[in-house]
Automatic annotation (TrEMBL):
Gene3D superfamilies: 2-enoyl-CoA Hydratase, Chain A, domain 1, Lyase 2-enoyl-coa Hydratase, Chain A, domain 2. This is 2-(1,2-epoxy-1,2-dihydrophenyl)acetyl-CoA isomerase. SUPFAM superfamilies: ClpP/crotonase. Pfam families: ECH_1. Coiled coil: none annotated.
Length: 269
């Protein structure tokens, strides 16, 4: 049974079966991000992260026909008669803390991309650990259409997934990438029929919520840092992570379950 645990204006939050589901709900504006939505998301993520025993995985999705259209341009449109909002200031105050929080969240994240993911919305999706796209989903690097460079971590995330040439192609042309092509390029983990997206993402979240949380987060860290490390340094980093995980309850439980030929009962500690 789902239980709504927070009251927000721009997002909906529920917790069930050990995972949380966060839904961007500014449907009329294609779930675009304004300053208030940033504040709500940061508060929500920090709160959920602190509920270690009750929340061990997170689903992020959108309401309606879009996942997230990126920045709400109504909030930043140039005013010929007033003080202009500095775009860089907005990125530093809103997007930097939000994207850093999503990327470093101490529980695994599942993004259910239910429609268009444009600009910062695409980055928000790509920052998650498991990315499940509905067949109708599209990814759009829309920054060049308004004379800007990608932000929100886009220049870090996309090239690592698709390579430099294909990333620059998307950044320069701002052409939409459909779900099938996104899967071919390695941008998403899997593609499902639209009507199966919710259940597929919840199935994955349930599985992750029952898993070894600390091991998931250490694995994410190893993969992300490994991009900038030599092979030798990666070997050492892996050994140090094993030092830490080898002292965890979940390691002891996993070994015991294997030897006793029973399913492991991980607790995320």
């Amino acid at each position: 049974m789902e239980e709504t645990v927070f009251n927000y204006e721009n997002i909906e939050v529920s917790i069930q079966e050990g995972y949380a589901e966060v839904v961007l709900s500014r449907e009329k504006s294609l779930n675009s991000l304004n300053t208030e939505t940033h504040k709500e998301l940061l508060h929500c993520l920090a709160t959920l992260e602190g509920m270690r025993e009750g929340v061990r995985a997170l689903i992020l999705t959108g309401r309606g026909r879009a996942f997230c259209a990126g920045q709400d341009l109504e909030e930043v449109k140039p005013d010929p008669n007033g003080r202009q909002i500095r775009v860089g200031d907005l990125v530093r105050s809103n997007y930097v803390p939000l994207m850093q929080k999503v990327k470093d969240l101490q529980i695994p994240t599942v993004c259910a991309v239910n429609g268009v993911a444009a600009g910062a919305g695409a980055s928000l999706a790509l920052a998650c650990d498991v990315i499940i796209a509905a067949k109708s989903a599209r990814f759009l690097q829309a920054f060049s259409k308004i004379g800007l460079t990608p932000d929100s971590g886009g220049t870090w995330l996309l090239p690592r997934l698709v390579g430099r040439a294909r990333a620059l192609d998307q950044f320069f042309t701002a052409e939409a990438v459909d779900s099938s092509r996104a899967f071919e390029l390695g941008m998403v983990s899997r593609v499902v029929e639209d009507e199966r997206l919710t259940e597929e993402s919840r199935t994955v979240a349930r599985q992750l919520a029952k898993g070894p949380t600390m091991a998931y987060i250490a694995t994410r860290r190893a993969v992300d840092l490994g991009y900038s490390m030599s092979f030798s340094d990666s070997l050492i980093m892996e050994s140090l992570l094993q030092d830490h995980l080898g002292e965890s309850y979940d390691y002891r439980e996993g070994v015991a379950a294997f030897l006793e030929k029973r399913p492991a009962r991980f607790e995320g500690r």
